[in-house]
Write a structure and sequence with these properties.
Structural class: alpha+beta
Distance between the termini: 99 Å
Largest sheet: 4 strands, antiparallel
Number of helices: 2
Number of domains: 1
């Protein structure tokens, strides 16, 4: 009778516990991956908003018909300031993008375009 018990089909308690631990680790890794993906998508959306604000500021500067001008905008947690100054037949534009609230990441962009 003792031999009949050994040949019975099924899993031991140790095998079940190991399977549960492995499954739990896999589910936790999947959750961490999803969180990282959401953070990445949020950062991409913010960066896209900042790029749109910077482009809009450049377009407004070009629309000044080569006159000295300046302005600022806020978009996606960033502050975009710009100044435009005529330099001969071109318009020199200096933009400064500051991320809020830390104000640590500052990007300065210089551009020049033909006067319209």
């Amino acid at each position: 009778m003792h031999d009949a018990h050994r040949n019975a089909a099924g899993f031991t308690l140790v095998e079940v516990v190991v399977a549960i631990v492995v499954l739990t680790i896999g589910v936790l890794a999947l959750a961490a991956s999803a969180a990282a993906t959401v953070r990445s998508m949020t950062d991409a959306t913010r960066t896209s908003g900042i790029a749109r604000a910077a482009e809009a500021a450049r377009e407004r500067a070009y629309a000044t018909v080569c006159a000295a001008a300046s302005g600022s905008d806020s978009a996606s947690g960033a502050r975009v300031t710009w100044t435009a100054a005529p330099a001969g037949a071109t318009l020199a534009i200096l933009q400064r993008v500051t991320l809020s609230p830390t104000s640590m990441a500052v990007t300065t962009i210089s551009a020049a375009g033909a006067c319209r």
